[in-house]
Design goal:
Blueprint: H1 2-27, H2 29-48, E1 50-53, E2 56-61, E3 64-74, E4 81-90, H3 92-96, E5 102-117, E6 120-121, H4 135-142, H5 146-160, E7 164-176, E8 179-191, E9 194-203, E10 206-217, E11 222-229, E12 235-236, H6 240-244, E13 247-250, E14 252-261, E15 267-281, E16 290-303, E17 307-310, E18 315-318, E19 321-323, E20 325-332, E21 335-348, H7 349-353, E22 368-382, E23 390-404, E24 417-423, E25 426-433, H8 448-458, H9 470-483, H10 493-501, H11 509-524, H12 530-540, E26 542-544, E27 547-548, H13 550-558, H14 567-575, H15 598-610, H16 616-621, H17 632-635
Parallel strand pairs: 5-7
Antiparallel strand pairs: 1-3, 2-3, 3-4, 4-5, 5-6, 7-8, 8-9, 9-10, 10-11, 11-14, 12-13, 13-15, 14-15, 15-16, 16-17, 16-18, 17-20, 18-19, 20-21, 21-22, 22-23, 24-25, 26-27
Helix pairs in contact: 8-14, 8-15, 10-11, 10-12, 14-15
Length: about 650
C-alpha cells in the first residue's frame, strides 16, 4: 500500500510539474514567439540590409497570431512594405506536424511599394547573390522529383490561402521615375472558400476598374478564378507596354485547376483557361493588332519523377477550330528529350481560314474556301542525340478549293505585277515583273547554265516538291541546335518568293506562319506554275547592292546578257544570292576569286554534269576563275571587306 501511495504521489507530482510548465509556456507564448521572430528577422536584416520593425506581436491563443505596425525598409531606400494589422488563425494540429495552414485571416492596411529612381531600387535585395533560404526551401530547390516539387509548391499555396477572411485597404505600387502602376483593393473577402474583390488599377493617366471572383477549396485541391472589367470595358494589362513594348487587352479571363495524386508518385493537374475578346500588339508578332475572339485551353498535365506531359486529351480552341496537342518533356542525365505532336483528322477547311486571328494573317483576311483538311505534326528532339531529331509536318486536303481571295490575290504572280524591294523594312525600288519592264528577262532567255546553277545551289528539288522540304528543315533545325543560334532556315525557292512578293519585310513570328500557309495554297492549288515562279524568282533576286534581277546582274558583273553567261560566271552568280550585299568577300585583293571558292565550284559543276549541261571532263577541270568587266569592277578597287556568312533570313 505504501509503495502504491508513493507511486501515485510521484505521478501526481510529475503531472503537476508538467501542467505548471504548460501553463507557463502558454502564458509566456507571446514572449517565446517574439524571441523566435526577433532572431529570424535579425538574420534577414543582416543578410539583405533591411530594417524590419513591428509595434506588437502577440500569440493570442495556441492557433492565433496577430501583428500590428509592421514595416520593412531597405537601407538607404524607400519603404518597401507597411502593414497596420493582421490576425491569422492557423490549423493547430497541422502546425504540430510542421505544416502551415491558414484557417482565417483578417488584414488591414497593407501597402507594398516597388520604387526605382534612376538605377537604384528598393527591391534590389531580391536579386542579390546572397540568398536566404529556409531548410524547406533549400530542400525544395534540390528536389529532382518534379511531382514532389510541384506538390510542395501547391501545398504551400493552399496553406497560405485561407478558407475565410478579409483583406482591407490593400495597395501595391510600382514606380519608376515618373511612371507608375498602382493597384488598390478596398476589400478582398473570402467566405466559405469563395472570394470576390473589386480592384482599381491606375497607370499614369489610365484608370481601370476590375472585378475578381472565384473559389478556393483546399480539401478538394481546387482553384477557380475569373477576372473582368466593370462597365462593359476591356481590361488593359498594366506595365506590359512600358516593360515589353506590348499592348494586351481582353474582355474576360477565366482559370481553373484541380490536383490529383496518382499511384507511383504521379501527379495530375486538370484545368481550363479561357479568354474572350483578346487583342495583342507587339512588333515581334505582327505590325498590326492581333484579334482573338475566343480562345480556350482545357488541359490535363501528368507530372512524374522526371517527366512533364501535356496529355493528348488536352483541347485547344480558338475561334472555330479545335485540336488536341501532345507535349512531353523528360530529363535524362541532365539532358532533355522533348516531343510535340498534333494529329487533326478531317475538318472543314473554312474552319481553319475563318479562325485565323485578324491582324496576324493580313494577306489571308476574308479568304473563303471549301473542302476538307487534315494535319499531322511531329517534332522529337533528344538533346543527347541531336542527329536522331524527327520532324514531320503535313497539311492534307480533300476536294479543297479557294472560292474567294482575301485581302491579297494569291495568283498575282501568274500575270505581270509590281514588285517592291525593301531595305531594312523600307521600300527602295518598285518595278513590274513582266514585258513592260525593260530589264525583265523571260525564263527561256536566261542561260540554262545559270538557271541550273541557281537551282542546285538554292533548291535542287524545286520542280518536284510542293513548297516544303521537311528533310531540309530537319537538317536546319539540327544545325541550329548544335550551334545554338538561327544559322540556317531550310527555305525553298517558293518560300523565298512568298516572303518577298507577298509579305512585309518585318521580321516576326507571324510572318513565318503566314508564309507557310500562302506557300501551301499556291502549291496545292497551282495558282502559279513552277516555270513562272522560277522566272519571277530570277527577275526579283538581289544580286548585289540595289541590283535586282538577272538582267541587271549580268550587265553589272560581266557586261553580258543573261543568255551569254559561261559556266564559271553562272556558278559565281549563284554563289552570291545568299549574301548579295557582301559579294566583295568572294574576291581577293587582286580582284580574283578566293581559292576557298573552289569547293563550291566543284560541287555545283558536278551537279551540272549530272544534269547533262556540261561534260564530266569540264566539271573536273572547272576553277573559280572569272573576269569582272561591268560596273562591279569599280567596287573591287580598294580594301576587301571581311567575309560575312549568310543569315538564316537571307537564306
Amino acid at each position: 500500500m505504501k509503495k502504491n501511495s508513493k507511486q501515485n504521489i510521484l505521478l501526481l507530482s510529475i503531472g503537476v510539474i508538467l501542467f505548471i510548465c504548460l501553463v507557463g509556456i502558454y502564458l509566456s507564448r507571446s514572449i517565446l514567439l517574439r524571441s523566435i521572430a526577433n532572431k529570424r528577422t535579425t538574420h534577414i536584416e543582416q543578410t539583405y540590409g533591411l530594417h524590419i520593425h513591428y509595434e506588437n506581436l502577440e500569440m493570442c491563443s495556441l492557433n492565433e497570431v496577430s501583428i500590428q505596425g509592421l514595416s520593412v525598409v531597405p537601407e538607404q531606400r524607400d519603404t518597401l512594405l507597411t502593414l497596420q494589422a493582421v490576425n491569422v488563425k492557423l490549423n493547430f494540429w497541422k502546425l504540430l506536424k510542421g505544416n502551415f495552414e491558414v484557417r482565417n485571416i483578417h488584414m488591414n492596411g497593407l501597402t507594398i511599394a516597388f520604387i526605382k529612381r534612376d538605377s537604384v531600387a528598393n527591391y534590389d535585395f531580391l536579386f542579390s547573390k546572397r540568398q536566404y533560404q529556409s531548410e524547406a526551401t533549400t530542400k525544395l530547390a534540390a528536389e529532382s522529383n518534379y511531382s514532389h516539387r510541384i506538390d510542395r509548391i501547391l501545398n504551400l499555396i493552399y496553406g497560405f490561402l485561407p478558407e475565410n477572411g478579409q483583406l482591407t485597404q490593400l495597395n501595391i505600387t510600382e514606380r519608376k521615375d515618373n511612371n507608375f502602376v498602382a493597384l488598390s483593393i478596398p476589400a478582398f473577402t473570402i467566405e466559405d472558400n469563395r472570394f470576390q474583390s473589386a480592384i482599381k488599377i491606375k497607370e499614369d493617366t489610365l484608370t481601370q476598374q476590375w472585378k475578381a471572383t472565384g473559389e478556393l477549396n483546399r480539401k478538394a485541391r481546387m482553384l477557380k478564378t475569373e477576372l473582368f472589367a466593370t462597365g462593359k470595358k476591356k481590361i488593359s494589362l498594366p506595365y506590359i507596354n512600358r516593360r515589353f513594348g506590348a499592348e494586351v487587352t481582353f474582355d474576360t479571363l477565366y482559370y481553373s485547376m484541380t490536383e490529383e495524386n496518382l499511384a507511383n508518385n504521379q501527379l495530375r493537374l486538370n484545368g481550363k483557361a479561357r479568354v474572350s475578346g483578346l487583342d495583342i500588339f507587339h512588333k515581334a508578332l505582327s505590325p498590326e493588332v492581333i484579334h482573338l475572339n475566343r480562345g480556350q485551353l482545357t488541359y490535363q498535365m501528368n507530372i512524374g519523377n522526371h517527366t512533364l506531359e501535356l496529355d493528348s486529351t488536352t483541347t485547344v480552341l480558338f475561334n472555330k477550330i479545335q485540336f488536341h496537342p501532345y507535349l512531353r518533356a523528360e530529363k535524362k542525365e541532365a539532358q532533355w528529350h522533348f516531343t510535340a505532336a498534333i494529329d487533326k483528322s478531317w475538318f472543314p477547311a473554312d474552319d481553319l481560314f475563318g479562325s485565323l486571328p485578324k491582324g496576324l494573317f493580313s494577306n489571308l483576311e476574308g479568304i473563303k474556301t471549301r473542302g476538307e483538311l487534315a494535319y499531322h505534326f511531329l517534332l522529337d528532339i533528344d538533346f543527347a542525340q541531336l542527329d536522331s531529331l524527327r520532324f514531320e509536318s503535313e497539311l492534307k486536303e480533300k476536294d479543297f478549293r479557294i472560292m474567294e481571295y482575301g485581302a491579297t490575290p494569291l495568283s498575282k504572280m501568274s500575270e505581270e505585277f509590281t514588285y517592291t524591294a525593301y531595305e531594312n523594312g523600307m521600300p527602295v525600288r518598285s518595278f513590274p515583273i513582266g514585258p513592260s519592264w525593260e530589264h525583265f528577262t523571260p525564263l527561256d532567255s536566261i542561260s540554262p547554265l545559270l538557271r541550273m546553277s541557281v537551282m542546285q545551289s538554292e533548291d535542287g528539288a524545286f520542280f518536284y516538291h510542293k513548297g516544303f522540304l521537311p528533310d531540309a528543315i530537319r537538317e536546319a533545325l539540327i544545325y541550329d541546335l548544335q550551334v545554338k543560334r538561327f544559322a540556317r532556315g531550310g527555305s525553298t525557292i517558293t518560300m523565298q518568293l512568298v516572303k518577298n512578293v507577298f509579305l512585309n519585310r518585318n521580321k516576326n513570328f507571324a510572318r513565318k506562319l503566314e508564309e507557310a500557309l500562302i506557300v501551301w495554297l499556291i502549291e496545292t492549288e497551282r495558282l502559279t506554275s513552277k516555270e513562272r515562279m522560277y522566272e519571277v524568282y530570277l527577275n526579283i533576286a538581289e544580286w548585289g547592292p540595289l541590283i535586282y534581277g538577272i538582267r541587271e546582274a549580268s550587265a553589272y558583273y560581266f557586261n553580258k546578257r543573261p543568255s551569254q553567261l559561261t559556266t564559271e560566271e553562272s556558278i559565281f552568280l549563284a554563289s552570291i544570292i545568299p549574301k548579295p550585299k557582301h559579294f566583295r568577300s568572294s574576291f581577293a585583293e587582286n580582284g580574283q576569286l578566293k581559292e576557298n571558292m573552289e569547293g563550291y565550284y566543284k560541287l555545283i559543276a558536278g551537279r551540272l554534269a549530272q544534269k547533262g549541261l556540261i561534260s564530266e571532263i569540264e566539271a573536273d577541270t572547272i576553277r573559280p576563275d572569272i573576269q569582272v568587266t561591268g560596273d562591279a569592277l569599280n567596287s573591287l578597287v580598294g580594301d576587301t571587306p571581311e567575309s560575312s556568312s549568310p543569315t538564316a533570313e537571307e537564306q
